[in-house]
From TrEMBL:
PANTHER family: L-ORNITHINE N(5)-MONOOXYGENASE-RELATED (PTHR42877). Belongs to the FAD-binding monooxygenase family. It comes from the Eukaryota. The lineage of its organism: Eukaryota, Fungi, Dikarya, Ascomycota, Pezizomycotina. One of its GO terms (molecular function) is N,N-dimethylaniline monooxygenase activity. It comes from Rhizodiscina lignyota. Pfam families: FMO-like (PF00743). Signal peptide: none annotated. Keywords: FAD, Flavoprotein, Oxidoreductase. This is FAD/NAD(P)-binding domain-containing protein. InterPro entries: FAD-bind_Monooxygenase_sf, FAD/NAD-bd_sf, Flavin_mOase-like.
């Protein structure tokens, strides 16, 4: 039985990079390969490059615990600074030689006899098809990797530019142009203030929005030279500051319980509503103050968005939805024609199509979708958001029910990666012995038991029903067909970290194949 690599990682974003680094740190191995569909590392922080793109988590917490960065320039880092940080990490740990860029995994099939994954991918430059055999397969594609397509009738007949904010057309110069924005999420609140400001602004920015968001006060000061010197040279200070940021965010979870968290949410609602009323144009206030429970959706930082709504060249339309797209603009339900040189889609991502469009088939040729139909009514699910029964040696980073409404995704990723390293340790020892030409009694495959998977899924959904995400708002956390929450982890993030350390080994089955 031959292997092309011990471990194959799909995706070179945050979680793919973290997985690769920990393989080096924990096991001293470089027998891994990373398949990345874009032409650079960084995932969402490479693909999302729209004007004003930045993180909503403080930079000193939005970073790997194994690669602290004393040189962050601001409280909240920009897309370009985050991407540079990730590239520096990749270079420091010599990960880039292991990455195959412009390649897209099409399918992965489990071979039960040899206990290996057979992975097929396409070289997007030549369109040639390649195959790899690996012992361990890690999906690190993330939940925000597939932009939603435009579903408004008539899009194909539009004569101007039409693009998603995650696929920003940098050849488009918005100066003096009429720009329509569809959507009102985090990306729109970041780029609308940019393209509507100053001498190089758009002639007109018309934003269509169906729902409002709780907008949090925001400022982004630069870190002083003294602060950066302190972070770099005084031992322990940077980790202490990082823990301080974590503790602040961790305590927010107190308000998420529907009943016990209500007093905290009520006070937060009063404060945030007053902030919006004080800073928004009066004509938009009734719409901009949400009617939904605060915390039901992740809050959005007000990156000067409310200020931009006061400008003469910005119009917010919330009561006359777009019905169809015409050659020169859009037609609303009332029949109004709004002309445009460009239409920008700020409509989010396909968050419920986990691993789409890849075809992953485990034991007995069962696909992930077929498995989910059996165990979770068709909604995406995974044990610890990471493992799926019947899919040995397969791990999903940023999988179902791993995100939080208030914390850094890197925190969750590191918990998942550390959990995965513990689970695969016996297999890595077996692989190490094999490479050294020695016999090993260690197993070469592991899978979570189906009863453990079902128990974990039932616990997750039961907990979710008692948290603020279940109060009725429309959000991308909820799978529309089943009503299940497939995105959020329903407990304190500290609990998630503890679970990544103390693995319940009774929930897993280890095996040794005859060919190994």
């Amino acid at each position: 039985m031959s292997l092309d690599s011990d471990v194959l990682i799909i995706g070179a974003g945050l979680s793919g990079l973290a997985t690769a680094v920990q393989l080096v740190k924990k096991f001293g191995t470089r027998n891994f390969e990373v398949i990345e569909k874009s032409d650079n590392i960084g995932g969402t922080w490479w693909l999302n490059s729209y004007p004003g793109c930045a993180c909503d988590v403080q930079s000193h917490f939005y970073s790997f615990s194994f690669a602290l960065n004393p040189g962050w320039t601001r409280l909240f880092a920009s897309q370009s600074e985050i991407h540079k940080y990730l590239k520096d990490v990749a270079e420091d740990y010599k990960i880039l030689p292991h990455v195959r860029f412009k390649s897209s995994v099409r399918q992965a099939l489990w071979d039960p006899v040899a206990a290996v994954w057979q992975v097929e991918f396409e070289d997007l430059s030549t369109h040639s098809i390649h195959k790899r055999r690996c012992k361990i397969l890690v999906s690190a594609v993330g939940a925000l990797s597939i932009p939603k397509k435009c579903d408004v009738p008539g899009a194909e007949g539009f004569n101007g530019r039409l693009f998603h904010s995650a696929e920003w057309d940098h050849s488009f110069d918005w100066k003096g142009k009429e720009v329509i924005v569809l959507g009102n999420g985090c990306s729109a609140t970041q780029f609308v203030p940019i393209i509507s400001k100053g001498e190089g602004s758009a002639k007109k920015v018309i934003q269509f929005s169906r729902q409002s968001h709780w907008l949090a006060p925001w400022s982004n000061p630069e870190y002083s030279s003294l602060f950066k010197w302190t972070m770099r040279w005084i031992p322990g200070v940077m980790r202490a500051y990082r823990f301080y940021l974590f503790a602040q965010k961790e305590l927010t979870f107190r308000s998420f319980a529907i009943t016990s968290g209500r007093p905290l949410r009520e006070q937060d609602t009063r404060d945030t509503a007053e902030y919006i009323r004080r800073n928004a144009p009066q004509k938009y206030v009734n719409f901009l103050v949400p009617k939904t429970e605060i915390g039901c959706k992740r809050r959005v930082n007000d990156t000067h968005y409310l200020t931009s709504l006061h400008r003469d060249n910005v119009e917010l339309i919330y009561d006359d939805a777009v019905e169809r797209i015409a050659a020169s603009g859009v037609i609303t339900k009332s029949g109004r024609h709004v002309s445009a040189d460009a239409i920008v889609l700020a409509t989010g991502f396909e968050t419920h199509k986990f691993l789409f469009p890849m075809e992953i088939r485990g034991e007995n040729g069962v696909s992930l979708n077929e498995h989910w139909s059996q165990v979770s009514e068709g909604a995406s699910s995974a044990y610890f958001g990471t493992c799926v029964s019947g899919f040995p040696n397969f791990f999903i980073m940023m999988g179902p029910n791993t995100l939080t409404g208030h914390l850094s995704v890197i925190y969750t990723v590191e918990c998942q990666v550390n959990f995965t390293m513990r689970v695969i340790a016996p297999i890595m020892r077996s692989l190490s012995a094999r490479h050294a030409g020695k016999a090993s009694r260690n197993p070469d495959s592991v899978a979570v038991l189906v009863e453990a998977e079902r128990r974990d899924l039932n616990w997750v959904q039961k907990r979710c029903k008692n948290l603020v995400w279940a109060t009725g708002c429309t959000s991308w956390f909820i799978e529309p067909q089943t009503g299940q929450n497939t995105i959020m982890y329903p407990d304190w993030p500290t609990v998630y970290w503890l679970r990544s350390i103390w693995v319940p080994w009774r929930d897993f089955s280890y095996r040794k194949s005859k060919e190994f």
